[in-house]
UniProtKB/TrEMBL annotation:
It comes from Balneatrix alpica. InterPro entries: ClpP/crotonase-like_dom_sf, CtpA/B_N, PDZ, PDZ_sf, Peptidase_S41A, Tail-specific_protease. Belongs to the peptidase S41A family. Pfam families: CtpB_N-like, PDZ_2, Peptidase_S41. The keyword Transmembrane does not apply. Keywords: Hydrolase, Protease, Serine protease, Signal. Gene3D superfamilies: 2-enoyl-CoA Hydratase, Chain A, domain 1 (3.90.226.10), 2.30.42.10, 3.30.750.44. This is S41 family peptidase. The keyword Ion transport does not apply. Residues 1-39 form the signal peptide. Transmembrane segments: none annotated.
Length: 439
């Protein structure tokens, strides 16, 4: 075994290394500070850089270079240092190397490769926030709240969130096996999924009984606000609507401005959300600027534990401004703002720079949005009617109704009772609001 000599902390070589890496660190921090100043003014009480800590960093770097079992380049070590520095800030801050930065840009544009699953990290495991509709994850039956414990047989307990996501991404057509723990299931579930190009349609409109609009938003992309406004306008032209259900369940969020644009479709001008950074002056208000495109139709918003971030912004704004009734389950509680700051030639930093607040000043972070009417997801079983099953129409010689039949064609809301109980209750509430309003 050959040992390389380790420079003593006080040796000339160690001092040279310390000076070299101190200069390197100073240059890097100066560049980073310049980037940050574009996003927000530097704090007035900036302290001098801790040179003793920089020397400690340089010494650790040199010892790793000299003694680690495998050779590691300076570039790799510095990238690892940035990753560790950012990852320890909070669960949503991270360093994005070039490939991950490109993937993030693709996901907000509406097309990317992978499984179609939004995840975060919890208790050493990867937790499913929500599967995206019409993706391999959703078709395989992955549910919000599932915990991924293995990827292709490899435990995720020692992996960071970014590493786990990278393992799930891959070439379309290739396969990956996920091992999941699900509440109420005594044994792990093993699912093999085929990766695909994920093309997300963020807005899915539908009309029930020719009178009630249904808008499901799967995530907030750059053009989601425009899609909502276009769908709403089209449905209003084609039928006389009596109300709207806006479904934000299992919507993991996305682009902030898209959330503001969606809220703008249902609100008169006024505050939608504001962000507050470290300093009081960092507050930024986001407002609705146009008239309510829905013409103040009764509105019910569906949320659950998979509704996060931008979904909570929309739900909170509509709730605070008394524009909608929220029904379902408490939302996820992701109320922090991540800013993307290009770093170097192709990478970026994703760091938390502020918190979201609803128009009434409520922080969403770790609190979420409470529904006005709690309705848990449930399975409904119809009871067989024990009484007489004969109705007037069954009687011999019964009279006709004189042409007064008011039955509406189209998909019936009653069909939702067993397949989607929360949506069924949302439409029942919408009907009641419509009746009270006299629509």
């Amino acid at each position: 075994m050959v040992n390389r000599p380790i420079p003593a902390p006080g040796s000339n070589k160690a001092k040279d290394v310390t000076r070299y890496f101190s200069r390197l660190a100073l240059l890097g921090l100066f560049s980073l500070g310049s980037s940050l100043s574009l996003a927000q003014p530097p704090a007035a009480d900036n302290q001098p850089l801790p040179l003793e800590s920089l020397r400690l960093f340089a010494e650790a770097l040199e010892r790793i270079k000299q003694n680690y079992v495998n050779e590691v380049s300076d570039e790799q070590l510095l990238e690892y240092a940035i990753q560790g520095m950012v990852a320890n800030l909070d669960p949503h801050s991270s360093y994005l190397p070039p490939r991950e930065f490109r993937e993030l840009q693709e996901s907000t544009s509406g097309e990317f490769g992978g499984l179609g699953i939004e995840v975060d990290q919890q208790d050493g495991f990867i937790r499913v926030v929500a599967p995206i509709d019409d993706t391999p994850a959703q078709r395989a039956g992955i549910q919000s709240g599932d915990h991924i414990i293995k990827i292709d047989g490899n435990s995720v307990s020692s992996l960071g969130l970014d590493e786990a996501i990278n393992m799930m991404r891959g070439k379309p057509g290739s396969k990956v096996t996920l091992t999941l723990m699900r509440e109420g299931q005594p044994k792990p579930l093993e699912l093999t999924l085929e990766r695909a190009i994920i093309q997300v349609k963020s807005v899915k409109p539908k009309v029930y009984e020719q009178e009630y609009a249904y808008l499901r938003i799967t995530q907030f992309q750059d053009d989601t606000g425009t899609e909502v406004q276009r769908a709403l306008s089209k449905m209003q032209k084609e039928q006389r609507l009596k109300g709207v259900v806006l479904d934000l369940r299992n919507n993991p969020g996305g682009v902030l401005q898209a959330a503001v644009d969606v809220a703008d479709a249902f609100l008169p001008p006024g505050l939608v959300v504001y962000t507050q950074g470290r300093d009081k002056q960092d507050r930024i208000d986001f407002e609705a600027t146009q008239a309510d495109l829905s013409n103040n139709l009764p509105l019910v918003v569906l949320i659950n534990g998979g509704s996060a971030s931008a979904s909570e912004i929309v739900a909170g704004a509509l709730q605070d401004r008394k524009r909608a009734v929220l029904l379902g389950e408490p939302s996820f509680g992701k109320g922090s703002v991540q800013s993307i700051m290009p770093l170097g030639a192709e990478g970026a930093l994703k760091i938390t720079t502020a918190l979201y607040f609803t128009p009434n000043g409520r922080s969403i972070q770790a609190e979420g949005i409470e529904p006005d009417i709690p309705v848990a997801n449930a399975s409904v079983t119809r009871l067989e009617n024990s009484g007489p099953s004969i109705r007037e129409a069954d009687l011999r010689g019964h009279l006709g109704n004189g042409g007064g039949n008011t039955h509406k064609a189209g998909e019936s809301i009653q069909t939702l009772m067993e397949s989607d109980y929360q949506l069924f209750e949302a439409f029942n509430l919408l009907k009641a609001l419509s009746l009270v309003k006299g629509n």
